[in-house]
Amino acid sequence: MAIKKKVMAQVKLQCPAGQANPAPPVGPALGQHGVNIMEFCKQFNAKTAKQEGMIIPVVVTIYQDRSFTFELKTPPASILLKKAAGIEKGSSSPLKVKVGKVTKKQIEEIARIKLPDLNCDSIEAAMKTIEGTARNMGIEVVD
Questions:
Q1: pTM value?
Q2: Which letter, b or e, does each residue of 25-47 get, where b requires 16 or more Cβ atoms within 10 Å of its Cβ?
Q3: C-alpha span between 118 and 126 (Å, rounded)
């Protein structure tokens, strides 16, 4: 029978894929719990090497014996939308100033990527969620 490790903390981070290093935010967030930071960086970079250029959210579970496990999440919808629309950043006043356009097909692709991390079951509901994010960024959704 396996002995269950006692969870000491859970840390949520957002790191560039394949580029985690001991500098802030990774170092201080994990260092205060006594985790081997270089080991985390090596494992994270190995798992995310194929997603180069994306920001990857990660939930690190730290146990009492200072070991850790981590779970990768899907990139934030805003980053996927910026990439699809080909823009640098969202609008500062999204209702007045539109900064880009995305198609329904692009919205559907993003919704399929994000579906495991969203709190909805159907692709249609996920698409509505992504469309709302796009609207709040000043990105127009066209057919």
A1: 0.74
A2: ebbebbeeeebebeebbeebbeb
A3: 7
